[in-house]
Amino acid sequence: MRKVAILGSTGSIGVNALRVIEEMEGKFQVVGLSAYSNVKLLSDQTARHMPDMVSVFEPAAAKEFKRRSTGGVRHLEPGVEGLCEMVSSKDVDVVLLSLVGGVGFAPLLAALKAGKTVALANKEPIVMAGEQFMLEAHRWGGAILPVDSEPSALFQCLESRPMPKGGLRGYGKSVNRVFLTASGGAFYKHKGSLDGVTPEQALAHPTWKMGKKITIDCATLMNKGFETIEIMNLFGLTLDQVEVVIHPQSIVHSAVEFKDGSVLAQMGNPDMRLPIQYAMTWPERVCRIVEPLDLFAIKSLTFDKPDFKRFPCLALSREAARAGGTMPAVLSAADEVAVSAFLAGRIKFTGIAEVIERTMKAHKPSGRLPSFAEVVETDQWARRKAEEALDKL
Fold it and tell me: 43, 106, 163, 220 - which has most CB atoms within 10 Å?
């Protein structure tokens, strides 16, 4: 029985992960849960799964959770400190990291230094310093396995070959290119200007039910830009090996073209429980918990090229990937600030890309691989710069 800690248990990934665990009774034991501030749902989860330790990120919510608690659980410190303590515990085998934004940076590093297997849904840290994290995983005997459906699909396609000695990054040597699919988000078929679209419209994703931040990133196609950088870092790919493809049906989750011209695709119904389950049970495939794909019910599968002019965030992400160094950290931080501002009604939807572009233009990345400290410093600088850019819109 594998012992699991779920960071972000009250978000969509965390909730689905607990569903997966319940449906595979006897395979996993939940030993740690964390939430930002949703005390009510966390209390329900704690009563149901009885973890050994719980961490609530927001201090006031942490105090409320303690008042609600009936005992029997260890309350860790609020903030990043508690998260790092949880993932470092000797009682944890697998960490499901499903936090939002750069807050997952320190817990990911702590988990890898403790030699843990990390099922990663929090893509921003691997965007900010992916190559460095992969080196740390190798150094400490930890592992990073993708949870997002498209990176997971690529992993499953590449798993047709034995794991290279260099880990996941060794897979890229046999690959000609990968097809990273995208549903297109809420506005890919939208006619006219995107200036006036509302947060409510942007949050109406046609296929997936997710958290607010990632749903907005899907609407701008930034999520696909983040995944481009993520899979480059995970699998040792170059930017030219990654081709983004719009696939509205979300049945083909991604595909790999090998050097001999053969293409393998991973297909399935759009249900996050499948990639979550695979990351948690790898290298095994166990019981089926999602509805099987009915090929006869699929009327058509369509594939289109993305419109980089209409969705400039995708172009900006590729620019950051090409620049390398600390530029991906700037991209991630500026996007987090801009998306938050859009959701708060401070800027237009099209202002998200403007904030990111202005922040990136103000930054000059070094040509070398930055240290973790330099990445964190750059992240903080970019957040301040992005706030300045907001004031100029």
Answer: 220
**Phi, psi for 136 (deg, rounded to 5):** -65, -40
User: What would the two tokens of residue 10 be?
Assistant: 């009250």
3-state secondary structure string, the chain?
CEEEEEECCCCHHHHHHHHHHHHCCCCEEEEEEEECCCHHHHHHHHHHHCCCEEEECCHHHHHHHHHHCCCCCEECCCCHHHHHHHHHCCCCCEEEECCCHHHHHHHHHHHHHCCCEEEECCHHHHHHHHHHHHHHHHHHCCEEEECCHHHHHHHHHHCCCCCCCCHHHHHHHHEEEEEEEECCCCCCCCCCCCCCCCHHHHCCCCCCCCCHHHHHHHHHCHHHHHHHHHHHHHHCCCHHHEEEEECCCCCEEEEEEECCCCEEEEECCCCCHHHHHHHHHCCCCCCCCCCCCCHHHCCCCCCECCCCCCCHHHHHHHHHHHHCCCHHHHHHHHHHHHHHHHHCCCCCCCHHHHHHHHHHHCCCCCCCCCCHHHHHHHHHHHHHHHHHHHHCC
Which residues are CB-neighbours of 155 under 8 A, at least 6 positions away?
A: 145, 146, 168, 234, 235, 278
For tokens 């000609």, what's the residue? 176
Instruction: Indicate the pTM of the whole model.
Output: 0.93
> In the beta sheet, which residues pair with residue 180?
244
Q: Per-block average pLDDT, block size 10, for the chain (393 residues)?
A: 96 96 94 97 96 97 91 93 98 96 95 97 95 94 94 90 63 88 91 92 84 93 97 94 96 96 96 95 90 92 96 97 96 98 97 98 90 96 98 88
Q: How far apart are CA 248 and CA 234, in angstroms?
A: 25
**Which residues 6+ apart lie within 8 Å of 72 measured at CB?**
50
Cβ neighbours around 91 below 10 Å, total: 12
CA torsion through residues 104, 107, 109, 111, sign: negative
Report which of 20, 36, 1 is spatially closest to residue 272, judged by C-alpha positions: 20
Q: Domain 2-146 is classified in which CATH homologous superfamily?
A: NAD(P)-binding Rossmann-like Domain (3.40.50.720)
